[in-house]
Each structure stands twice: as C-alpha cells, then as structure tokens.
Amino acid sequence: MADAPLFADLAEGPQGGRALWFTAADGVRLRAGIWPDGERGTVLLFPGRTEYIEKYGRAAEDLRARGYATVVIDWRGQGLADRAYADRLVGHVGDFAEFQRDVDALVDLARAQGLPEPFHLLCHSMGGCIGLRALMRGLPVRSAVFSAPMWGISMAAWMRPLAHVLGHLAGPFGQAHRYAPGTGGTTYVLDAPFQGNVLTTDPDMWDYMRRQVAAQPDLALGGPSMGWLHAALRECAALAARPAPATPAITALGTAEKVVDVAPIHLRMSGWSNGRLDLYSGAEHEVPMETPAHRARFYDEAAALFDANG
C-alpha cells in the first residue's frame, strides 16, 4: 500500500483524511479514502456507479459527528482506480463477481490500517447490489444501511428482453466495451441542469458534486458498457433468487426515485425479517445527498442502527 491522492478541498471531509492505493487479488489497483476518527467503529462505504471517494467527504463528516470512522472505496473502473479501457468514461465490468475481489481487499486494508471495530456497512445504488452480495458471502459487519440499492435496473418493460439479448451477444461479438443504448461518454452532473435532475433536490449538494468532477475530470465517468449492463442484469436476478441475510438492515428510498427499479426494493425489504424500509417524501435517488432535513434523518437513523448493533 502506498499513499494516493485525496482531493481534500473538494471532499470537505473530516480533518486527518488520507487515501491509499491497494490491490485486489487479480492485480487491479484500487483507491481507498480513510477518515479514521471514530470511537464507535468504522463504516465501510460502498459508492454507486460513477462515484468516487471525494463525493462522500461530507458523509464522512456526518458519520464522524456520530462517532464513526469511514473508509470509502474507488471501485475498479471508476474514480482513480484502474479502468478497463483507454476510453476512461465508459463504465465497464465483465462480471459483478469482480467487485467482490475489491470488497475482500478493502476489508483486509481496513484491518491492516487498524481502523476501529466493529465494522458496519453503508452503501448506495450499485454499491447496494455489491453490498448485498457481500453480506450473503459473510462480510464481517454488524449492520447495514442501503440507500436506493440497485437490486433491479430501471427500464421500460419492452426493453428488458432486448437488453438481455444485446448484452448476451455483445461479448461473443467483441462489443462488450460499447456504451449501452441510450448512454454515452458524458458525465451526468456536468451535462444535466439542476432543474429536473434525478439525483437530488438540494442545490448545494448538486453544486458540490459538479465542482468535484469539474475540478478533477479524471474522477468522472460516463455511461455503462454493454458488458456492465449484462453483468448487472445477471447479478440482480441472481440476488433476487436468494433469501435476505440475517444482518440487521435499513433501506432508505426516496419517493421520487427514478434511477433504480423500486419494485425489487419493496419486495426484498418485505421479506427481510431483521430489516425495514424507510421512505423519504419527495427525495430523489441520492438520499444521503438530499436536503439538510433528509440528510440529518438519514445519518441519525444509520447511526442508531450502528449503535444498536455495536
């Protein structure tokens, strides 16, 4: 492990933060951001697709204020971690099992760095898909908080069988690296206006996200590849066929959610004996980056769960 860049001025995280390079079992170089202050334990924070460490600097401060250290990962293919193709903007992975190698390496790093235990999980969107699989594999956390987890891909019903067919054929025909239909090499927060965006209703948090990728373009990511889409559809289907883990859990979901498929979330949480679904009225996709009232509720509920299972 060696020191890696951390754009602390953009992250606005707690004092004393740092970043490290580390390596997954298959040799992919990853980046971790660590904010180590927290007497109650450490939150393993799994970001969503297109995201990166600095986007969770304010989240780390919210968690520090409630007694928790935070470690955030740049997944393979995003942030400053290794990317699969020369076109850095295409988000690609061949199989979601690859992300579990990243998870295993992050747990090893957290322990090697002596971060306070017990560990808890907080994950958003695609990170919620990765996090659910990790829990089923025995991730060593006491509890888990999900924000708008990607347990299903939101698309028109008529597109779903077509997406499966195109994804299945993309690999054999050497097209897995191509952007999925309807996407391309643009970064959403730089391309979309605040009015009508699908991420947050809070203008300050929108500006926070825009500033980061505008100042550090290497953090940016565009649309997913055909390979990513096919892998994501397979993983969501595989997870849906398995029972919920025993881990105590909360899932936060905005009532204005437009990015992930909400039906699998309601179905999963209705059968999670040790879990509950919290709805946030009027919130968009990124509840942890919503209005101050929503954010305060989200982190208070997360900390209460962590405290109860410490």
Automatic annotation (TrEMBL):
Q: Which UniProt keywords apply?
A: Hydrolase
**Which Gene3D superfamilies is this protein grouped with?**
alpha/beta hydrolase
The answer to whether UniProt assigns keyword DNA-binding to this entry is: no
Domain Serine aminopeptidase S33 stretches: 40-291
Q: Name one GO molecular function term.
A: hydrolase activity
Q: Does the keyword Hydrolase apply?
A: yes
For this entry, the protein name equals Alpha/beta hydrolase
